[in-house]
Automatic annotation (TrEMBL):
Keywords: Transferase. It comes from Hydrogenophaga laconesensis. InterPro entries: CoA-transferase_III_domain, CoA-Trfase_fam_III, CoA-Trfase_III_dom3_sf, CoA-Trfase_III_dom_1_sf. Gene3D superfamilies: Crotonobetainyl-coa:carnitine coa-transferase, domain 1, formyl-coa transferase, domain 3. This is Crotonobetainyl-CoA:carnitine CoA-transferase CaiB-like acyl-CoA transferase. Pfam families: CoA_transf_3 (PF02515). Transmembrane segments: none annotated. SUPFAM superfamilies: CoA-transferase family III (CaiB/BaiF).
C-alpha cells in the first residue's frame, strides 16, 4: 500500500539519532507524513530494540535476529545508516549530514552529544535553520536533568501509577503501570507536534530552534482531568480501578458471560440505560437524577447495576444498549481487536515490505484526504541505506 501523492512533509529531511521508543515514535510519524527520515544506528548492533525479542521478524528460525517485532512498531518509513558516533570520521559525517538536514531528533543524556560536537550549539553554527529536538527523561534543566529516564520510572514519578490499578482496599490493589509504554508514545506525539510548529516558525522566519521535550513533563501534562481535580479542587486522586472520578456510571460491569464497559456521559444516556435495564424509576431517583448525584451515591448505583448486568450476556447488553443510544462495548484482547469488523474495515493492519518478506504493522491513525500517509517503506535492515543516503544527501 503506497500513496500515489507526495506526503504533507515531502521534501523535509529528518536525521534521527534517537533509539528505543519515544524518539523513533516521533520520527516514524514524520516519515509516515512524507518526510525523508534517516535513522542513524550503531554499526553491528543498531537500535537497542532490534534485540528486544522474541518474537522476531522472519520467525524463530530466521538466520539474522536483527529485527524484533518491537523494533517494527516504531521504525517504518525510515532509511537506516550505520555510523559510529564515537569515531572522528563518524562525527564528521554526521556534521555534513546535519548541514543538509531540516530536523534532527536525539535522545542522548543531557550533554551526551557535546563531547562529539553534535549538540545544538555546535550544529546550529553550520545550519542556522536546523530544528534540533532533544528528548530526555527529565529535560535539559532542573535538578533531575542528568538522570536517565525510562517510561516505567516516569509513570511512577509522574503520578500515573497513583491513579492506575485497583484501590488499596480491593483485592489486587496497589500501583500499576499501563500495559504499554504510554509515556514514551505520548512523548513521541508531543515531540512531533513541536517539530511541526518549529517548521512553521522557520517557514515564516528562516530560524531554527532547540526543542526540549521531557518524559516527566509529558506525563504530568497528560494527567488531564486528574491534575485539574487536584489543582482546582485540592483533591489528591486515588486509584479507582476502572471507575471514573467524575462520571458515573463509567466503568466495567459483569455480565452473564464476562464483562462489558458502560460509558454514560450525560443524564439522557443514563435515563435510556435505566429503561433498557428495566428500572426506569432509577432515573427519577433523587440520588441518581444528575451526574453529580450519581458521583455522590456511586456505591449504591453501581451495586444496583451490577445486580442487573449479570442477567444477560455481553452481546445481549451491547445489542440492546446500542439500539438505545447508550455508549457501551466489550473488553477485547488484542487478537479480538484485529478481528473486529470495524478495525478490519478501517484497515488498521497494514502489510509492508520487510527484510524477511511481507510483515504487518499497525496503520497510522492519521487520515489526510489530500496528502495520505504512505506505507511504501518498511522497517529497515541495519545500515541498509548508508551508501544511498550519503550519495543522495551529500552529492
Amino acid at each position: 500500500m503506497s500513496s500515489p501523492k507526495p506526503g504533507a512533509l515531502h521534501g523535509v529531511k529528518v536525521l534521527d539519532l534517537s533509539r528505543v521508543l519515544a524518539g523513533p515514535w516521533a520520527t516514524q510519524m514524520l516519515g509516515d507524513l512524507g518526510a525523508d527520515v534517516v535513522k542513524v544506528e550503531r554499526p553491528g548492533t543498531g537500535d537497542d530494540t532490534r534485540a528486544w525479542g522474541p518474537p522476531w521478524v522472519g520467525g524463530a528460525d530466521h538466520p539474522a535476529h536483527d529485527m524484533s517485532a518491537y523494533f517494527t512498531c516504531a521504525n517504518r518509513s525510515k532509511r537506516s545508516v550505520a555510523i559510529d558516533l564515537s569515531s572522528e570520521d563518524g562525527q564528521a559525517l554526521i556534521r555534513r549530514l546535519a548541514a543538509q538536514t531540516d530536523v534532527l531528533v536525539e535522545n542522548f543524556k543531557v550533554g551526551g552529544l557535546t563531547q562529539y560536537g553534535l549538540d545544538y550549539a555546535s550544529l546550529s553554527q553550520v545550519n542556522p535553520g536546523l530544528i534540533y529536538c532533544s528528548i530526555t527523561g527529565f529535560g535539559q534543566t532542573g535538578p533531575y536533568a542528568q538522570r536517565p529516564g525510562y517510561d516505567f520510572l516516569v509513570q511512577g514519578m509522574g503520578g500515573l501509577m497513583s491513579v492506575t490499578g485497583q484501590a488499596d482496599t480491593e483485592p489486587g490493589g496497589g500501583p500499576m503501570k499501563v500495559g504499554v509504554a504510554l509515556v514514551d508514545v505520548m512523548t513521541g506525539l508531543y515531540a512531533s507536534n513541536a517539530i511541526l510548529a518549529a517548521l512553521q516558525h522557520r517557514h515564516r522566519t528562516g530560524e531554527g530552534q532547540h526543542i526540549d521535550v521531557a518524559l516527566l513533563d509529558v506525563q504530568v501534562a497528560a494527567l488531564a482531568n486528574q491534575a485539574a481535580n487536584h489543582l482546582v479542587g485540592g483533591l489528591v486522586p486515588q486509584r479507582m480501578g476502572n471507575a471514573h472520578p467524575n462520571i458515573v456510571p463509567y466503568q466495567d460491569f459483569p455480565t452473564a458471560d464476562g464483562h462489558m464497559i458502560l460509558t454514560v456521559g450525560n443524564d439522557g444516556q443514563f435515563e435510556r440505560l435505566c429503561t433498557v435495564a428495566g428500572h426506569a424509576e432509577w432515573a427519577a431517583d433523587a440520588r441518581f437524577r444528575t451526574n453529580a448525584a450519581r458521583v455522590e451515591h456511586r456505591e449504591a448505583l453501581v451495586a444496583l447495576l451490577r445486580a442487573e448486568t449479570v442477567k444477560r450476556t455481553t452481546a445481549q447488553w451491547i445489542d440492546a444498549l446500542e439500539k438505545a443510544g447508550v455508549p457501551c462495548g466489550p473488553i477485547n484482547d488484542i487478537a479480538q481487536v484485529f478481528a473486529d469488523p470495524h478495525v478490519v474495515a478501517r484497515s488498521l493492519r497494514v502489510p509492508m515490505p520487510g527484510p524477511a518478506g511481507e510483515l504487518s504493522t499497525v496503520a497510522s491513525p492519521l487520515r489526510l484526504s489530500a496528502t495520505p500517509v504512505s506505507y511504501a517503506l518498511g522497517p529497515p535492515a541495519l545500515g541498509a541505506h548508508t551508501e544511498e543516503v550519503v550519495r543522495e544527501w551529500l552529492s
